[in-house]
Amino acid sequence: MKPIHIKHKLPKELYDRLKDIESFRPPQELAINEGLLEGKNLVIASPTASGKTLVAEIAIVNNILTKGGKAIYLTPLRSLASEKYNEFKERYPFLNVMLSIGDFDSSDPWLQKADIIVCSNEKLDSLMRHNVPWLREVNTIVIDEIHVLDQPDRGPTLEVLITRLKEFCKDAQLIALSATIQNADELSEWLNASLVRSTYRPVELEYGVYLDGKLYFEDKVKKLPEAKLPEHQIIKDTLEMKKQILVFLSSRRNAEAVAKNAKKIVDKYLTEEEREKLEKLSYDILHVLESPTRQCEILSECVKHGTAFHHAGLVSKQQRMIEDAFKKGLIKLISATPTLAFGVNLPSHTVLVRDLKRYSPDYGSNWLPVLEVQQMFGRAGRPKFDREGRAIMIARSEIEKDEIFEKYVKGNPEEIYSKLSAEPILRMQVLGLIASGEVSSRKNLLKFFSKTFFAQQYADMGKIEVKLDKVIGLLLKYGFVSSTKEKLLPTRIGKRVAELYIDPESAHLLIEKIKSGRKNEMFWIHSICSCNEMFPLLRVSPREFTELQNKYLDFSDEIEEPSPWDLDYEVWVRAFKTSLMLFDWINEKTDASILEEYKETPGVLRNRIYISDWLLYSAYELARIMKVKDLLLPLNKLRLRMKNGAKEELLNLLALKGVGRVRARKLYRAGIKTLADVKKAPIEKLASIVGRKTAEKIRGQVTKKSLNSKIDDF
Description:
Layout: H1 12-18, H2 26-33, E1 42-45, H3 52-67, E2 70-75, H4 78-91, E3 97-100, E4 116-120, H5 121-129, E5 138-143, H6 155-168, E6 173-178, H7 184-190, E7 194-197, E8 204-211, E9 214-217, E10 221-223, H8 230-240, E11 245-248, H9 252-261, H10 263-267, H11 272-286, H12 294-304, E12 307-310, H13 316-327, E13 333-336, E14 350-353, E15 357-360, E16 364-367, H14 370-377, E17 388-394, H15 398-409, H16 423-435, H17 442-449, H18 453-458, H19 462-478, E18 481-484, E19 487-490, H20 492-500, H21 504-516, H22 521-529, H23 544-552, H24 569-586, H25 591-598, H26 602-625, H27 632-644, H28 651-654, H29 661-669, H30 675-680, H31 683-690, H32 692-701, H33 704-713
Parallel strand pairs: 1-6, 1-7, 2-4, 2-5, 3-4, 5-6, 8-17, 11-13, 11-14, 12-13, 14-17
Antiparallel strand pairs: 8-9, 9-10, 15-16, 18-19
């Protein structure tokens, strides 16, 4: 089907966007035939890169231009949301595209002016708790990666969110984009949508299994170049084809090892021009942090030779630099953990899934789900560059080779199941529903949950009804909800907890800490480390217990230690170790020293700092509502120290844009300790400390007017 055939149905701006497309891909054609342009709900279940996003874009732009209103594009990951925002901004300059993925305690009023709102699932959930007025204007809702309903951590939030949207935006067209799943028909039934199922891929995918130096495809066998390790043979074979390769591993350690061990192999295939560019990139990656860690050094050395690893331990800037270099063809190999398969669009000619099994303490070593492996395979084959892509796995015997073919090549992906019965999520969602006024009684609550995917799949509300009653009892006990004549109403503090988007159990813990009236920084750091949001905590080895007990003596006046016989004692110790790490951070320990002492990588540390900031902000807000005024300043100062990783004496200087904790410390040591000192210091002195550009920048900020406002902020 060519776009010209539907020209009469499309607004001019949309047709102009599509006119250069010679013909629609099968999933797109099927969607149009199923009523895409007539506003029908659709579930598009097809492989990665099959053209699902364009289906959503056609619905969004067509509805906005013909009916007005707004569109929401939902993604499970912030990185994916940012990528889609940039794509839509470039493609549709005639529409107002906005991104909302940050602050969970904001209604983002500027979104009122948006045509397309790209946001994460959790952010929209948060916005609905703030009763955003523009939600009634939404006439298109796109849910990307809807199969994450099956994930215990993200699925329940998405499921409740979709159930709410179905009620709140009844007339909106709903487009759900999914990987190929076994029970897509069940999902489409729940969404009252037509199912568009397709196996089409724009780039043909060859499935191969490695065994004893050969790649076995369904219709051929290929002998590989000699090398010590199977993955090295596959890497060499890919590079000899002048192609790139993504290798998926089970752990960060394995990902780093593959990138490091493949350096010598990849380096031989680089041109001199590429080596020069990689040398510069290597330097930039090494110096992203204030002081390079051992991880930075290893990554930098890998990049110099055309390889890189990619996982949550890297800071976001390093991740983006690696992704951009891979897209440009500069980096030839990325070894990554499976999370990359669910993140940004990073296609490669060859994808190797080396580790097909995952170990868990409860179940031992088990095969990865077919759906998860297929998500990784989805990165194989680059449209516009490759005629075919390769998805490769490694076997260690003939029997295992046959088993891999049977499971991952000929087998079907699993069905997805609702994970809504997870209690921590239920606590947050029930309070959110009551606080927003969407439900006002137990009866209404049960009616709401009867419309969930969980209820449709299991056709038995008994299990979830028991859990809902338990949650209601807990919310009543905590004082977040009141009950009168069968009514469930939010209390003032309960409504605020819902808006803060934290687990009610964590909020209760913070409230009890606020009641104690204690202000000490270590007391509050340990308090937030005891909240559910901070899990998983740092691990503690048996030999560390004695060492940590000795360290506890330094803080025994600030934190109470439970009995070693207490069931939660191990959790307390792990929270204490995590607290020590954050305490070191706010006292200006470097990323390198924290990695060495606590084995916490910069990327994961940044995530903990983000969560800590949010929990401290929540504690501040709860203390404000409780009118415990003498806690507000200590909590605010601690929050600022946590965000900046600095001692209190640097806070005034950190108010200046362009001044982080390293520059602030340099200024402080040079006797420039306040904003007034910055204003008085000769520009030459400032330049000798922080450089000419930064000196001029910070001097410009300390006019009399801005100086007063900056001081007032603190």
